[in-house]
Design a protein that fits this description.
alpha+beta, FAD/NAD(P)-binding domain, 2 domains, 5-stranded parallel β-sheet
């Protein structure tokens, strides 16, 4: 007898889950509350869709901020290279760019969605748009289908919850999946932003709004522990800081973000001794010029203007009159400029959601609920999140693949 599988959510995880379940012989209905599939896919990678990352499984797991071991089976069965091959084989060529980020060759997210839609159609998946699932239908400790918001009962032997998290609610991710998990008795890890811009206590970053820094380092400490230190790019905004380094660092923030100690190193490639020697050379070469007019040799112009004040040195002072103590303060600020985090930006602005369904209550080999027979989870609804670079979309595709197989009753092991 053919199993009837219902998938709630037509994002990347839901589409892959529906496709895999159909390929395993199930009769699949994909329920999407929006007027089209893949709405969140359209905005990923600024519309270019960083679909995955061309790295090994072990390299991938190092980029997962929370519960990486839970993904071992998913990334074994459905590694990034299989996602790349799927797109290529279905008429969507891909290109690998800096940082091994994988994009459709057209750099259009719509091409990825269309490829998945064609595959769903070819596999016989019934797609129902503007169909919002409201609650699980259960009987005798097992799933029996879904009740839609309009009161329609849709019967099924298995339900895959792939409704997303709480980030970008305009795309339809407003927490429905968590309601289904709670109905089934699952533990929910508190939801908060991840890959998020940060608001600072200091106001000077706002004065530099729009300034992008390259080849700088951010370090975050919590007590005596270093939680994060990387070199790359960041951006000053009207509220604080953003950009690749900041988004990645936000994955590692402690629950009390104000307890984190963050510092910005403007010259990570120079040792303290080298930096001091550089300053001495600049000052000796231009002893009569004011400090603020010499610093652009070391810093972007706009930052050079405010930097003396941040280092507690008079920017109008002639370089030849700078004391050793003042030079040491300048070196210290260049090496470690403190930033205090006031809060993360709202979760609606975050790229992904941290927290969600506890992975301790989900079988990592099949994505099956350990609480309710016939219930499966995939994608952002789970308490798993990773750095930028295509990792979070790959998590969605890989967990979707396993959930589809599990719901269809197929073997979830690698081929």
């Amino acid at each position: 007898m053919t199993r009837k599988v219902l998938v709630a959510g037509g994002g990347p995880a839901g589409m892959m889950a529906a496709l895999e379940a159909a390929r395993c012989g199930a009769a699949v209905t994909l329920l999407e509350r929006n007027e089209k599939l893949g709405k969140k896919l359209y905005i990923t990678g600024k519309g270019r869709c960083n679909v995955t990352n061309d790295c090994t499984r072990d390299e991938f797991l190092q980029e997962v901020a929370r519960n990486p071991r839970f993904l071992y089976s998913a990334l074994t069965v459905f590694p990034p290279q299989r996602m790349m091959a799927f797109l290529e084989e279905n008429g969507c060529p891909v290109t690998v760019q800096r940082g091994r980020r994988v994009f459709p060759a057209s750099e259009k997210a719509s091409d990825v969605t269309r490829t998945l839609e064609r595959a769903l159609h070819a596999a016989g998946v019934q797609v129902r748009l503007e169909a919002r699932a409201a609650r699980l239908l259960t009987e005798d400790g097992a799933v029996r289908g879904l009740m839609l918001a309009d009161g329609e009962a849709v019967p099924g032997d298995a339900v895959i919850v792939a409704c997303g998290g709480l980030s970008y609610p305009a795309t339809g991710s407003d927490g429905d999946g968590y309601l289904f998990a709670e109905q089934a008795g699952h533990t929910l890890i508190p939801r908060r932003p991840s890959l998020s811009a940060l608001e600072t206590v200091e106001r000077w970053p706002a004065e530099l709004q729009g300034l992008s820094l390259k080849n700088v380092a951010l370090e975050m400490r919590f007590g005596k522990r270093t939680l994060y230190r990387e070199t790359g790019e960041m951006l000053f905004t009207h509220f604080g800081i953003s950009g690749p380094l900041v988004l990645e660092m936000s994955c590692h923030l402690p629950e009390d973000v104000t307890a984190a100690s963050v510092s910005l190193c403007m010259k990570p490639g120079l040792s303290p001794e080298q930096l001091d020697a550089r300053l001495q050379r600049e000052f000796a070469a231009q002893p009569r010029r004011q400090l603020r007019n010499v610093l652009p040799a070391l810093l972007p112009g706009r930052m050079a203007e405010c930097f003396p004040e941040l280092a507690e040195v008079d920017g109008g002072k002639s370089c030849g009159d700078i004391t050793r103590a003042e030079r040491e303060r300048l070196c210290a600020a260049l090496r470690s400029l403190p930033l205090h985090i006031a809060r993360m930006r709202p979760i609606a602005e975050a790229i992904v959601t941290r927290g969600g369904v506890s992975v301790k209550e989900v079988d990592p080999a099949t994505m099956a609920s350990k609480k309710l027979n016939g219930l499966f989870f995939a994608g952002e609804v789970l308490d798993v999140d990773a750095h930028t670079g295509g990792y979070n979309l790959q998590i969605a595709f890989a967990t979707g693949c396993l959930a589809g197989r599990g719901a269809a009753g197929a073997d979830g092991r690698a081929e």
